Each structure stands twice: as C-alpha cells, then as structure tokens.
Amino acid sequence: MRTSRLRTLDLTVTAMFVALMAVGANITSWAPFLQVAGIPLSMQPFFSILAGLLLGSRLGSLSMFVYVLAGLVGLPVFAQFKSGIGVIMGPTGGFLLSFIAVAFIVGKVVEQKKQPTFGTFLLASLIGITLNYVIGTNYMYFAVNTWIGSNMSYSAAWKIMMWFIVKDLAFTVFGAVLAPRLYRAITRSSLHQSRNIA
Question: What's the CA angle centered on 68, arms 15 and 149, to 5 degrees?
C-alpha cells in the first residue's frame, strides 16, 4: 500500500515538472520577440534545475526524461510547440538532452546533505546551469559544423550563449532562494503522507 501511494505521488510531481517544462519552452509563442540568433529564450534551465533541487536525482531526472520523450514521440512540448527527432538533431538539441543530466547532478548535490542549506542549493544550482551551458553549447557547435552543414567557430557559439547567461544566472539564483522553503514543504508533505499510510 505504501509503495502504491508513493508511486502515485511520484507520478504527480513528475507530471507537474513535465508540464512546467512545456510551458517554460513556449514563452516565445506569446512573446515572439524573445529570441536571440533564432534561439528562443525559455524558462527550461530554471525548471530543470528546480526539478533536481526539489525532487532529487531520481525523480528530477525522470521528469526531464519523460519531457524529452514526450517531445520525441510527437507531443508539441518543445519550443514553439515543436516535436520530433528533428528538434533533438537541431542546434538546441543538446540543451534539451542536458536537462536530464542537470536534474540528476543537481539532485545528487542536494542529497549529499541531510539538511541542505541555502549554500547547498546555490552550489547545486550553479553546477546545474554550468552543465547545461557546457553540454548545450558544445552540442550546438558540433551539430552546426557537422550534420547541419554550416560553419560556426567555437568562440562564436559561446558568444551567442552570452546573450542568455544574465537571464539564466538570475533565475538560477532565484531558484536557489526559492528552493529551501519549497523543499521543506515537500519533505513535510511526504513524511506526513508516509505516516498516514503506515
């Protein structure tokens, strides 16, 4: 009985973050001017980091995996309501794939502490956004210069991403500030449900 109820809770929070990622991906659908070099601004890095902070490595990465899988099988959850393998193979595909690793690593950092502090959440968040940029930008450079068939210097790839870094760092710090209270609330809720089931 306990396992069943916990699985239901797991599915609920996983689905919530899948939905948040879909919403975060499509901000430019309502504000199309929020693009740089054809790459849409999004809230996805923020939500992927928050998933790791609040759900831990297992559920956080699972939610990101389900999000990417949903887009791959045809649900319009990627930026500009796109879907399919073509998006993954495009210049932004590395960022999408990185969200799985980001949530996992961020969750692992938080899980090292029994009582994570703001410093723990901030460190985990900064590691997460760094990982997102490293994987995503290197993938973009590789994709553009191989199967996409264009030319882009490595420095140009990073210059493009500099347009986004202020926004992403600001949201990363905001997430670290927000996370401790949400983390405690989720933890209390989980313990309360476990005791009721027991």
Answer: 160
Q: What is the pTM of this model?
A: 0.88
Query: Which burial class, exposed, middle or buried, applies to 142 when counting CB atoms under 10 A from its CB (0-12, 13-18, 19+)?
Result: middle
Residue type, 89: M
pLDDT number for residue 36: 60
pLDDT of res. 2? 37
Q: Where are the domains of the chain?
A: 2-197
Angle 154-197/44-72 helices, nearest 10 degrees?
90
Q: What is the mean pLDDT of residues 84-102?
A: 97
Q: Which CATH class is domain 2-197?
A: mainly alpha
